[in-house]
């Protein structure tokens, strides 16, 4: 069960990082300043975290 929890945590972290880095890469299309690039990555990380929270809650509700 510990291995399963560790794998779930790694998957969640990976998902959040993927969304955050994707936002940063998309921002590169507009030639951002370094501060804007960092802001886009941080905003993407927040969106990724919110998405994973929503997905986990929705999944748990569907099990009931």
From TrEMBL:
Lineage, broadest ranks: Archaea, Methanobacteriati, Methanobacteriota, Stenosarchaea group, Halobacteria
Q: Which parts of the chain span the membrane according to its record?
A: 12-31, 37-56
Cite the entry's keywords alphabetically. Membrane, Transmembrane, Transmembrane helix
Q: Which organism is it from?
A: Halobium palmae
Recorded superkingdom: Archaea
Protein name in UniProt = Uncharacterized protein
């Amino acid at each position: 069960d510990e291995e399963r929890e560790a794998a779930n945590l790694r998957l969640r972290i990976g998902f959040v990082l993927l969304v955050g880095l994707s936002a940063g890469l998309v921002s590169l299309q507009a030639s951002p300043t370094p501060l804007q690039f960092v802001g886009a990555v941080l905003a993407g990380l927040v969106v990724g975290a919110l998405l994973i929270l929503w997905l986990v809650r929705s999944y748990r509700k569907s099990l009931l």
